[in-house]
Amino acid sequence: MKQPINISIDGPAGAGKSTVARQVADALSFTYIDTGAMYRALTYEALKHHVDVHNEARVMSLLKDMEITLENEGMTSRVYVNEEDVTDAVRLNEVTNNVSFIAKHEKIRIEMVKKQQEMAESKRTVMDGRDIGTAVLPDAEVKVFLTASVEERARRRHQEHLDKGIPSDLSVLIEEIARRDKIDSEREFAPLKKAHDAVEVDSTSMSIEEVIQTILQLVRERTNGSE
Ligand code: CDP
Ligand code: CDP
Questions:
Q1: Which residues bind ATP (predicted)?
Q2: Does the 6-218 domain belong in CATH 3.40.50.300?
């Protein structure tokens, strides 16, 4: 049996984590795990049930009653909560603008990390998020910290919105992304930060393909081609 190998990709919003993680996983036949979707699913449930996102105990009791399932269908990842397909719902603006408040709570993070570690057990995974290299998979063989300037990240989101016909304002997106980065990087528990052994890749002027090839090259170097 092949040894489990894990690849962690952390970084701020819009850096390209999920886009490249999914394709790196596909190229290597690894399992892709989108941990952000799990925090988003919990946020969606909290908003749906009118639970105050700042109330850790109430959010925690919601999480205890939830089964979050991630499924990959080709290049799309679907998210389910107790069998309800919430893939599109978790991308709603209201969820995006509240998720970092939910992700601040220590007990919530402990529970999420446990679930994520179980998902990665005895598998070869590419996992993306904010604390994968630092907390979820500290022994990952390959760790990437993917960044890009805030303007470029907002521009990418703006383009995504335009492509989908969603109204979008670039300056509002810059503000929202900067606000979320600040909360994620300054929180007390498992903040967004580069693991000491992660390789930083600045994708500001890189194409998606260049980022994928950079990561695949790192995988070859770190695993001596044993992947
Ligand atoms: O795709 P995008 O970068 O917009 O966000 P995401 O990866 O879906 O994550 C949404 C939010 O969940 C982040 O802004 C963090 O607040 C939180 N998150 C986290 O705290 N830890 C993770 N491992 C993943 C996400
Ligand atoms: O997961 P994260 O929030 O880090 O980013 P994402 O959801 O993968 O979104 C990044 C967006 O930027 C997607 O629309 C990509 O097509 C685009 N993009 C990229 O990911 N990487 C580049 N080097 C250039 C563009």
A1: 11-19
A2: yes
